[in-house]
């Protein structure tokens, strides 16, 4: 380590610049943790800080941030930095965490009112250099070049693999083509700086500015010698003289900020290990936490030996080695236990005699944990490789099964009675997957289902629920990564190809950890009063989803093939029209080329800012603003829409069909924090229906044969009906109870006109505001959607709440409850924590408030359709109907029904959907359609 007495190295970090830089470094692939927080800025900043501390070994260090509000430069020029976009919400959320990280590192945070960070750094740098320090200004900002001298250097952190760049006097002179670093401000005065909205002299760029400064030495001497300049540049310099002088003042970094360099305050200290661990844990920083906190692996401990079912020796985890002067982290903060340093008894059970002995032990248990190893993540096609079982912590048993299907089924059949025994509770992690696989091998799983993934989802719906993450958090244990067995990428193996000796510890560990997680999570469910919701909604839903996925839905491949040709021809026609209007051909898939053609060559008005790389933005929102006025823009948007439809659905769906000609989408009950189900492979809930071309895709989903039809039952305006019931708003309740159209009734109230005289425009506006209020949106959202002024939107909302006072009280009450208790709940008790509800960040708090308003409504709707699914699934089987539930999409259930059952099952399905949550004090309406395909039925 450097000796502070002899090697004085001060690093001053430009906080805001580094935070922004870190955020945008991940802009295309942001780092999102399980809570949904974008941690890109926090992670990138921490990485830069740690790399600097580790590799540069500073003796002194401080981080300087810009103050809130304007600085003295705004007094010089009101439009200084006025061109900058509003601070991204994620950066606003990042700053408090970054301050915590710095506090944990015991690094001083400096903010001086009225002065930007570069002024503070400039002042401190000069003071420290005079005191004999080598100063490094850590920043990506080029303006700092003006401060560089022999003992003051610029330190530009590495980015995109380019490595750290340290710039001294000669580097700055070469970079700017000047004689000494102080001339950087002369350059900026002439050429301006678009980043800070410093105008400079129009028409003078870097080369011309460097030439003038080289000839005259300074900008002032140049301006006093314009008679020696010829042509346009003379006119420019004379016309914009005052602007150039102001620009130089704005670009000049002040060196006399009222602050004194205090060596003792900036001295590097040993960081607070406990505090840093807590922050990293909340942000879910694992790799960088392990690196900084110095956790290392212990030598492997062998599994205990002895009798096949002997109790394992108690685990004695070794503590992590200590780094000098660092405290031990709190328990479970960063996992330091793993299979190599924890005693365990993991066994392979292969012979008939061993399997019989294992089964005897399993049948004597009231609760067992089980897991499967397979060849694929798709349970409807995966081959079973083996099964693992556990019933006591630290011990588990793996039963391999052969590749031959009949032999495999014979072994599974030995365990089928156990798996079907309803007297034995079953514990699993993502049990639906294992249940689908085992069902296909002739072993349905029955009894009480205790799924640790679903349990954790109920407790923490905004987090991730993978076993390895839960294990680290709850058990202080890092599981064997599957990649260590099967690898990654193109050379990835299947579990069948892995030697069984390697599979045994991995598979056994899964069953063991899952069992231990159950014992950790169940008491938490009890404490949070979520057991009833788990036992009556989420657990019974698992076999329902299992059967839906196994059933799949029939797809008309021939129709999709023909529709693909139709869309391709339409796209080609649109392309020809676009090229004709543009006057040349170009790559319609290239945002850069679209921007250059539209906003550059064709002169389409461009109101927004450009990207970091200087390109025009061509996203849908930007183009939509000018689409009505410019037909070419409208055609480009249509081309994009049809291209996405073709690639995402029409051409992709046939590739997802199994050998049975059906698509078996995977339904997820642990993704959406509101409680809603989602689907994947394919995502059937995202099939577009608002355009005729999108709706046409639904024609491809058909019944199993000519003797069946598709039956679709859909809740009508369920969320609006639920908010009426929950808020007990008299106006909304009256509209629903009298059978009025809710949007027309809303329009009549907020526009103060008779119901019969409501116009189409008024109804549309009322419909928009109904759903905007439902989702907690404000005037800004209404302004965009209705294309009205902010004042008009605000007045509409005021009128709305004036008429629907009960709804306003309900929304306000939901927010207040969240602020007091930290969460909101659905009618059935589903909870969603809102950690930002009392945040000092206005943006984060506003988002949490919107969630507080909407979650009880969306979540109750989710609970309602789940209950309906459970009861319908049960009724269809108990009454021996052949009708099968095959899809759940938003508020709609789709069934594959024999034609001769439609009249009987329709009233049954509708009644069970209506009565899923009884006594709601508002009529629940279910609409059912029947057809030869999903579009007809819907």
Automatic annotation (TrEMBL):
Q: Which residues form the DNA-directed DNA polymerase family A palm domain?
A: 694-901
Q: Does the keyword DNA damage apply?
A: yes
Pfam families documented for this protein: 5_3_exonuc, 5_3_exonuc_N, DNA_pol_A, DNA_pol_A_exo1
Q: Which residues form the 3'-5' exonuclease domain?
A: 346-526
**Sequence ranges of Low complexity compositional bias:** 310-321
Reactions performed catalytically: DNA(n) + a 2'-deoxyribonucleoside 5'-triphosphate = DNA(n+1) + diphosphate
Domain spans labelled 5'-3' exonuclease = 8-269
Function comment: In addition to polymerase activity, this DNA polymerase exhibits 3'-5' and 5'-3' exonuclease activity.
Could you identify this protein by its name?
Answer: DNA polymerase I
The organism encoding this protein is: Neolewinella xylanilytica
Name of the coding gene: polA
